Amino acid sequence: MLWLSALLAVVFGISVFLGRYPAPGFMPLERLFSDEMARSLLLNLRLPRLLTALLLGMSLAASGAVFQMIFGNPLVEPGFLGVSQGAAFGAAFSIIFLSNTAWAVQVFAAIFACLGLGFSYLLARRVRYGGWVLRLVLAGIAVSALFSAGVGVLKYIADPLSQLPEITFWLLGSLTSLTWPQFWAILPAVTLGLFVAFQMRWRLNLLSLSDETAFSLGAAPGWERTLLLVVVVIATSAVISVAGMVGWIGLIIPHIARRIFGADARYSLPGSMLIGAIFAILCDDLARVMFAGEIPLGILTSLIGAAIFMLLMMRPQVAVKQ
Amino acid sequence: MRNKILSFLLFFVLLTGAACSPQVAPTAVASTAPPATQAATVAPEPRRLRVLAAASLTESLTELGQLFESQNPGVTVSFQFADSEQLAGQLEQGQAADVFASASKKYMDAAVAAGRVIKYDPKTFVSNRLVVIFPKDNPAGLQELKDLAQAGLKLNLVDSSLPVGQSALDFLEKASKDEQFGAGFSAEVLQNVIAYENDAQAVVTKVSSGEAQAGIVYVSDLRADVAQKIASLEIPDSLNATVPYPIAAIADSQSPDLAAAFVSLVLSAPGQQLLAKYNFIPAVTGSASSAGFMVTDALGRAVRFEKAPERIVLAGKGLFMVADAIYLFPEAGQRIVALSSTNQGTGNFIPLIDPAFSAKITLDSSAGAEQIAAAQPDCVIMKSSNANSLGKALEAVKIPVVYLDFETPEQYPRDLKTLGQLFQNPEQAARLSAYFQDKADAIAQAVSGLTEAQKPRTLLLYYSEKDGAVAFNVPPMGWMQTLEIKTAGGAPVWADANPGSGWTKVNFEQVAAWNPDVIFVVAYSSPINEVTAMLKADPQWKNLKAVQENRLYGFATDVYSWDQPDTRWILGLAWVAGKLHPDLFPDLDITQTAQAFYQDLYGMDQATFQKSILPEFKGDLP
Amino acid sequence: MRAAPLLQFEQIRFGYPQTPQPVLDDFNLEIAPGAVTAILGPNGAGKTTLLHLALGWLHPQAGLIRLERQPLAEYRRRDLGQAIGLVPQSEHVSFEYSLLEFVLLGRAPYLPTLAMPEGRDYEIALDALRQVGMEHLYQRSVLSLSGGERQLVLIARALAQQPRLLLLDEPTSHLDLGNKGRLVRLLRDLQAKGVTILFTTHEPEVAAALATHLVLMQKGQVLKTGPFNEVFTGPDLTNLYQLPVSVVDLEGHKVALWT
Q1: Which class for B137: exposed (0-12), middle (13-18), buried (19 or more C-beta within 10 A)?
Q2: CB under 8 Å to C189, separation ≥6 — which residues?
Q3: What is the structure's pLDDT at B26?
Q4: What is the rounded distance in angstroms from the CA atom of residue A83 to the CA atom of residue A79?
Q5: Which of A4, A16, A21 to mutate to test the interface with B (most CBs of B within 10 A)?
Q6: How far apart (Å, rounded) are the C-alpha atoms in residues B246 and B126?
Q7: Is pLDDT at C36 greater than 70 in this prediction?
Q8: Are C216 and C222 in contact (CB under 8 A)?
Q9: Cis status, amide bond into A296, omega within 30 of 0
């Protein structure tokens, strides 16, 4: 875990000097002392962006890990259970009908994300077909589709000049133009989510067991799970509210972390957070440095994430058990 | 456990470090390193700029010419100073020149009439006013203006064929209407005239030598070398003539870039300060004070500039239409250092009007703040739709951003005014606003007599092949396309079909149900002529009234389609009006209209128009 | 004087929402402290439901369940976790926990919500693994175990829980003979330490090998209950399973035979 923290620090440190100013690639250190613009860019754009990428990676990976443990299914992530689409819908709703301020967008993203999750869960319980996992996935797909249709309707009525670009941005995910106010806006929600999940990480193991077993071991599976889900959904929708829908981190990273640290969430959860942060920072480095125009971060994480996922699926150890 | 605490600590150390250290390094080193991306400097070719200027500008423009030469290595400025009337005459006769600075609007108008200066081009760069001068020892005992009428005063004036002489007579006329002076004032004063000189300097010389006891000249005629010998009486504004001096680049200049740059310099803050030193009254608001100026942009933000921006970057998405409007200001080409893509898929207009285009940095339309910063801008202009993303990031690093819309006819004057402030050229903004207003009003006027029944039921369709699927789209009611059709006397049939605020797809059944009298088709990324040919050949479309009556038109297009809220909308409007109501616009020659448009607004000469624009003509254009 | 019962079911009625017929109706039972009680009954008799009620996981619609005279509903959850352990018949595990990590979860009732297990918890967990004979496999993944091994691990987790009342749902269903024997010895040791045991089984010989008391359950009611020897009789078993069963005494062991 220590080496992973060190790696994160190194990646972060290098990334701060990586960018397209003054030329694509590394900015020499002495430039910081001679060039006002270089300093301003680094402090006002790169730092908040990198820190947000760090929070983004940590939150998405942590909530992926929490989702997987709580639903006892290594194949779920917030994106599969209507959370991401719900958050995107809530944010778009807020942009069009209410307010485009960071707080309103975040709050509405969180509310609709929780609604999406709750709706998926209730639907899964009522579906009379297949096992619990299949039902969850089916319900999640249905609810996600519902919300993305909703986003489609909102896109249709959005002002194509001012609102539509904002909404379209949700669907791709990007950290372009991120500044300190947005970082500060999401910091409390993300800290809360990560802190609660981190503190309850051993408890998570217990909650990954069946209800009556968890109960027999002194846990209150119902509300403890709800608490954990709500805090990670709040953290997730907070980062979604500034970064848009960045997929696959929540699915892939916990897998990798479990592979390195074992299933016990005491290690795999913090491991997920660290690996998620490193992964998000590296993907964002690529997004902002590789080409003259920025590649949306969501496209990169999906591309790389899906590739890793395929590799993992082909490895024999990761048997997906029903 | 401990490990995890460590990593959290590290994270917070990074955080707090970021938050409390905006001053990382001492700021003593003030000079900014040159941008790495700037084009390498090439040894400039020797070039010449020929300026024709009114005699009263001799000292001031000579000094300004030296400044210009120092700023543009390799350029020699040669002046010809003479009477404005004489210079206008030379221009009429075809004398080659690059810039004309006149002491009177009258002679600039003559140059415009002769076709040497584009109608909307001249700008007032200074103004002048009359002053009564007398020798310091005041032999006639002049105390106030009334004393000019005292018998026996030896008064020296300039001949009325020169602007200053005429202005002096105007002043006397006005004074005679003022009861303070009395109706006989003018006549009494004129009796005192000992001579009418052929230029103002002669008056100044005679007064300074004491040969004359008083004279009336422009304040700019007071040379430094005689200043100690001469005293003056101010003429109040109510009686004075504030004479505007217009300047313009010559339309057929061999060095249009230098000409525009020289005019810019004259209008810039340093130029205006220099002229003020020679007793001229600066014409450009705000430039007289060196304390900077404010620009109010499309979002209502007031942006402060300490000095005129010299490194402007045009950035963000949806730029090309805005860029075309920015280039309506002749200063723009000189000051823009980088711009994001202005190619709509079928061509790029800016290189045709900006000779320095190839030296400019081309940005990707999704370029981030870092790449824009790498161009070292002192001002970034973009569409207001970028405000929440890119704009916010640029403002975070303290790069001034000016937002524009240029989406509807209403926004044109507003955004032109913004650009007028930015380029410190409000005259150009007013002139352009008037240009668009006049043209649009003329068409609105021509169709104003139509009853609703006389307005053809019109449909505008945007043919798109996005994602491999053909779609027909109608614009929302508030868009330029719809407004063009309404203004040109058409009745849009799709009024209820698009409740949204972007293009909305419609299917053929709906088109058939509308069965409009006239159909306009636009296609931004497909060849419009092929699209219209295909539609006309389509058996289903053949049943439509518009196709049968041969009133399905491909929207006029050159480099860009004319339907959009680009500067070409005014051309699009004229073209639509001609198609909808050929009877009301029998004399419309759209090619000539277009040529005049490019000439008037972009200073494009006929040859360039023939070479670069005419071959791009697509859609239903001759 | 008879000792106070450890666990009492008083006129319990319980039904699942989906089914109109209650699973248990007017159910009464007392479990004496230190007793090893086997519950025999045909499929669907309500045996597992009974265990879940005893655990406090399910709440009766009528009647009262008392643990050490105090109604179960009044217990704090953590105290219940320390008092009662459950060994489910099988358990779905989604992640590759090591045996040690898995058995450590048995310590949860003794730890505050946000605490982590410490040295003593590891000792207890390792000891529990040793009791089921799997100490040497503590780093193995739970998912790599066979069904029988997994059942032993579940028992080890319950041992780490150190409950006063241990509920086992068909604990021998996946075990081979050797492991059955090991389990029987293990439970006898626990009984000797004073742990009260309640288990369901379909195997009369397991009941015979372990139980001091027997409950025969049929259609949600107690058919007969009492000391093992009084209830484990041919007529009673015949009555229970609706199948001719005879009980023979073979060198002090009672054996049920059916034809």
Answers
A1: exposed
A2: C131
A3: 36
A4: 6
A5: A21
A6: 8
A7: yes
A8: yes
A9: no
Q: Please name the residue that has the structure tokens 């602007």.
A: B163
DSSP code string of B275-309 = HHHTTPEE-STTTSSTT-EEEE-TTS-EEEESS--
Least CB-CB distance to C57: which of A212, A224, A263? A212
Residues of B whose CB is below 8 A from A161: 318, 383-385, 405, 407
Token reading at C144: 């790599």
Give backbone dihedrals phi and psi of A217, rounded to 5 degrees, phi first: -95, 20
Q: Can you tell me the distance from the alpha carbon of B135 to that of B44, in angstroms, rounded to the nearest whole number?
A: 50
Single-letter code of the amino acid located at B444:
A
> A69-113 pLDDT, tens per residue?
988 888 788 877 888 889 888 988 888 888 777 788 888 988 999
Evaluate whether C168 touches C87 at the Cβ level (below 8 Å): yes
Instruction: Identify the residue whose tokens are 């006389």.
Output: B454
Say if B37 is an interface residue toward chain A (CB within 8 Å).
Answer: yes
Helix, strand, coil tally for chain C in percent (to 5)? 40, 25, 35
Find, among B282, B99, B33, B502, the residue nearest to A23 by Cα.
B33
CB A89 within 8 A of CB A154: yes
- CB–CB of C108 and A206 under 8 A? yes
B506 DSSP β-pair partners: B472
Collapsing DSSP to helix, strand or coil, C244 comes out as: coil
CA separation for the pair A284, C220 (Å, rounded): 62
CA distance B195 to B217: 14
Residue A266: what are its φ and ψ, rounded to 5°?
Answer: -55, -35
User: Beta strand C36-40 with C213-218: parallel, antiparallel or unpaired?
Assistant: parallel
Residues of chain A with pLDDT under 50: 318-322
For B495-520, what is each residue's pLDDT tens digit? 877 766 778 888 888 899 999 999 99
- Determine the residue type at A290: M
How many angstroms separate the CA atoms of A320 and A251, rounded? 13
DSSP state of B253: -
Type and span of the H or E element at B106: helix B105-113
Q: Would you call A258 an interface residue with chain C, using a CB distance cutoff of 8 Å?
A: yes
**Helix or strand (DSSP H, E) at B541:** none
A200 has a chain C CB within 8 A of its CB: yes
CA distance B410 to B433: 10
Prediction pTM value? 0.72
- For residues B479 and B500, what is the distance between their CA atoms, to the nearest angstrom? 11
Strands (E), C135-244: 165-169, 196-201, 213-218, 221-227
Residue B381 — very low, low, confident or very high, per pLDDT cuts 50/70/90? very high
Do A274 and B7 make contact, defined as CB atoms within 8 angstroms?
yes
pLDDT at B453 over 80: yes
DSSP structural state of residue C103: H
Alpha-carbon gap, residue C185 to C175, rounded angstroms: 14
| DSSP structure class, residue B130 | E
Encoded amino acid at A185, one letter: A
CA B61 to the chain's CA centroid = 23
